[in-house]
Automatic annotation (TrEMBL), chains A, B, C, D, E, F:
InterPro entries: aa-tRNA-synth_II/BPL/LPL, DUF366. This is DUF366 domain-containing protein. It comes from the Bacteria. The lineage of its organism: Bacteria, Bacillati, Bacillota, Clostridia, Eubacteriales. It comes from Desulfosporosinus lacus DSM 15449. One of its GO terms (molecular function) is transferase activity.
Length: 185, 185, 185, 185, 185, 185
C-alpha cells in the first residue's frame, strides 16, 4: 500500500474513478491511495451512485481535496467497510489538527448539518475503488457545506498526506493483525 | 444483524469467543453483537493473539463492558477491518457522551498513554468473531488504563447498547451501499 | 431479499437483465426478485447464453410471466444453483395450484416434451442475475411449448407473487440455516 | 462428482459427517455423494444443528436411506443452497416412482404433517458437507414420520442410486452452465 | 479441463483474449487450453498490460505458437500463479525435447538474453484468462529473441499439444490433491 | 513475504505443519517461507495426506532440507498451485547449481525413478500451508531416493536460502503482475 501526492491541480469529474488510475497517472503499482486537489463536478452519466442518479442529485464543489483508493481485490462489501474506516480516519486526523466538531454518519462527515465530504465505493473489472472528496471551499455547493478552509487547514495537501499515510499504515497493521491469531472453536 | 444486552454479570475468560456464542446463550440467530459486563481474565491457553502469548502478556480487568461480534462469513481480513470500524464507532459514540479526549491507534483506544480497550478478531470454523472489552474500572490492571467510570458513563450497559445499535445500523447501511452502485471501467 | 410485482405490461427483450434493474425501475435496494408480465423477444445481440447464439436459437413468446432475480454477490456457480432451486420452487408452487404433470430438467420445466420456461443466469459487474420466463400463452413459439394458461392459472401475477414470496422466504431460511451449525472435523 | 452405493448396512451416528468420508471409506476422490442404509441415532454431542441441541431434540430412525455429500469448497451458504436442491431432487425422483403427495419445506420433505427426512449441512476444515436421511421405516421415531416403505419403494438403494446419479448429473450440468454465458452490464 | 489444437493458421492480435474464446471458436465448454499458430501483433489499444502501454512497448512476432487458457473462476492472483506454472511447464516440456538451455524469469522464458515468450493474464467478466506465445521464428522481432525453430522443434503444434496435455493433466492432479488432505491445527 | 533460515538442526515430524509456525518459532509475521535441516519422520497420526495413510505409506529420511510455507489466505486450490510452482522453482534453482537431470511430476522431483522430495499442502484454521522436504542423504529411505548430497550441493542451507529468496521474489512479482492489467471483455 503506497500513497502519492499530486501537487498539480487535477479536477475531478468522475472519470478518475477507473482501474489503474494511480498506476497510469502516477506510476504506483499495487494497492494505493492518491491525493490531489481540484474542483469536483460529476455529471449524471459519470455518477456511480444510482441513488444520486435517481434523485437527480448532482455533485459540485469549487475546490476539494480528493482521495482515490484502489485495492486489488474484488470484494465490494470489503471496499465499503474500508471506505467507512477511511472516513473515520479522516475525522480522527482532523482531530489532531484541532477540529473536534465533526460527526461521521456512514460515509459522510458533517459539522452539524453542513456536509464536509462526498464519497463512493465501487468495483472495476480488476479491483475495488473508493473516491472521497473533502470541500476546501464551501462556496457555491448545491447543499449546505463546510470546508477545510473553515477549519484553518492551511496546508491542504499536507493534511491529505497525513490521512494517506495513516491509511497506508492502518492497512499494513491490519494485514499483520490478520497473521498472528489462532482460530477458535 | 441483531444485538443483545445481557443484564446479568458475565465474566469474560476467553471461552466466550466461540462460534454461535450469541445463539447458544441469547438465542440470536445470524450476524450479531452481544453486550455484557463482567471481569476480564484470559489465561495464556485461551489467548488468541500469539503476539500476547509470545510476550507473555496477560489480560486482566476487574470490570469491563464487553462486545462479542459474530459475522457468518469467513474472511479474517474483513473481520479485522470491521473491528477497526467498531473501535472507531466506540470512540465516536463516546464523543456523543462528551468524551473528546480519546485517540484510536489501530484496534486500541487511549487517553494519552492510558488504555481503555482490549480487542481481538479471529476465525471460528463457521464464522468470524470480534471481542472488544472496555475498562469500566481502571483498578489493578497490569498496564496503565482508563475506564468508562472515569468518563462518568453511569449507565454502562446503556452506553453499550448505543454502540451495538450504531454498529448494527452501520452494517445495514453498508449492505445497502453495496447494492446501489454501478461498476466502473 | 425483497420482491416487487409490476402490474403494468413490461416486454422482455434481454436488456432488463442488467445490474440494479429492480432498484432503477422499482426502487428495491438489495437482493431482490422482480415479477412482471409481457412478451419475450431476445435478439441474438442481447443473448447471454452463447450456446443459443451458436445454435442460432431465438427466444420468442407472446406472453410470459417474468422473474428477474439479483443477488449482490459475484459467484456465478452459486447463482446457477440458486437458479435451479428457483425452477424447482416454481414447479412446487405450481403443484399447490394443482399442476402435477411437470418435470424439471436442469433449469427447464416441461410437460412431457412441451417447454414451459426459459431461463439464464449470469454476472453483472456488481452482482449475479437470473432471468426466468414462464409462457402464459403457447401461441407462436418456435418450439413446442405449454403455458400457464393451459393450467388454468387465472391470476398470473398472483401466481408470480406466490413464487416470489416463496423464494424470498427460502433465501431467508437458508441464511438462518447457515448461522446455526457448528463445524465438523 | 462421483457417487458410491454402499451395499453393506452402515448405521449413522453423526460421526460419518466428517471430511473425506467417501475417500476414506469408499476410495472416492473429489466431490462425491455416498449412499448407504442403516439406522440413524445421533446423540447430542454429535449433533451439528445447534437449534436441535438447544431444543433437546434427538434424531432417531430404525432404518434410513442416507446420503452424504462432500464438495471441496468452503462456502457454507453454497452448501445450503445445494442441500435444498438435493432435497428438491429427492422429491422429484420420488415423483418418477409415482409418489406425488410430498411437499418440500426448506430442507425437509413431508407428506402432510409426517416427516420423511432429516438433513443438515456444515463445513469441515477442508470441505462442505451435507447429510440427508430418508426414513425407510416410520417405526419408533420421536415425531410423526413417513417412510419410503410406505411408498412401496422396494429397492431402497436403487432409489438412492437414482437420486445420486441425478445429483451428479445436475452438478455437472451446472458446471457447464457456468461456462457458456457472457456477462451483462 | 480440455484442450484443442487448431491446425489452421490463426494470427493473434489481442482480440482472442476474450471470454469464451474456446467455446465460441472450437466448441470447448469449461476450463480449456487452446493451441494455435500464427503471427502476433498487438496494437496499443488491445494491450492488456498497462506496463507495456506506458512503456510504449509493442509486441510483434512473425510466427508464434499460441496458448489461450481460460479458467471459469475470477481470481486473478490464482490465474497469475497458474500462468507461472504454465511457463514452468513449457520449459519442462522443452527439456523433454532436449532443450536444456532455457531459464524462466517470472512469466518469461529466456535463452541467455534472448526471449522466447510473451505472456499475460487477466480477468474477463466471467472468467480468468492467460495468453502465452512462443516465438517459432525470431525474425524481425523488436527485441532479441529466440524461437522454437532454433531448437529444431519440427512439429510445432505437436509440441503445443504436449504442453496442453501436460497442463490439463496437472490441473486434474491438482484438483485431486485438493481433495485428499485433512486440515491441520 | 519473508523467509527465515534456521541454522540449528530441527527434525520434522509433521507437527511443524501448523498455523503460525514461522511466527511462533522465528518471529516472522505474515506470509513466510521457513528453511531448516533435520531428519523427517512422520507417523501415521500426523500424516496429512490421506492417500498415504490409506496406503500405509510412511515417510522417513535421515537428513532433509525442509521448507515450510504459510500464506494467510484460505484457498487450498491456490496453495496447491503455489506448491507446484515451488517445486518447479526448486528444480530451476538446482539447474543453476548444475543439476540438469531432474524431472518434476506434479509435486515430486525425480532423477529417473529416484525421488528427491516429499511435499504436502493443506489448510489450517487461519491460513494455507505447504511442506516440502528434499533428501540430503538417500540412506535408509523406504523407497529409492536421491539426495542433494549426490548433487554435491555442499551448502545445503545456502541452497535453501536461494530457493526461499526466489520464492519470495516470485510472490512479490506475481502480486505486482496482478495490479497492472486491465480487464478484457
Amino acid at each position: 500500500m503506497k500513497y502519492f501526492i499530486e501537487h498539480k491541480l487535477l479536477n475531478y469529474d468522475g472519470s478518475q474513478l477507473q482501474s489503474l488510475f494511480a498506476y497510469k497517472n502516477f506510476g504506483l503499482m499495487g494497492d494505493s491511495i492518491s491525493v490531489f486537489r481540484g474542483s469536483c463536478r460529476v455529471e449524471q452519466n459519470e455518477m456511480v451512485d444510482m441513488e444520486d442518479v435517481l434523485a437527480k442529485d448532482w455533485i459540485y464543489s469549487e475546490d476539494m481535496l480528493h482521495f482515490i483508493v484502489e485495492h486489488f481485490d474484488m470484494d465490494l462489501e470489503k471496499a465499503i467497510i474500508r471506505q467507512r474506516l477511511l472516513i473515520a480516519t479522516i475525522k480522527e486526523e482532523l482531530e489532531k489538527f484541532g477540529v473536534k466538531t465533526l460527526s461521521r454518519s456512514g460515509d459522510d462527515l458533517y459539522e452539524e448539518d453542513k456536509k464536509l465530504s462526498v464519497s463512493i465505493s465501487t468495483l472495476s473489472p480488476v479491483s475495488s475503488m473508493i473516491h472521497c472528496g473533502l470541500n476546501v471551499s464551501k462556496l457555491n455547493t448545491p447543499i449546505p457545506t463546510i470546508g477545510l478552509g473553515d477549519f484553518r487547514i492551511q496546508d491542504v495537501l499536507g493534511f491529505g498526506e497525513s490521512v494517506a499515510k495513516h491509511y497506508c499504515d492502518e492497512v499494513l497493521s491490519m494485514r499483520l493483525a490478520r497473521c498472528k491469531v489462532r482460530g477458535v472453536s
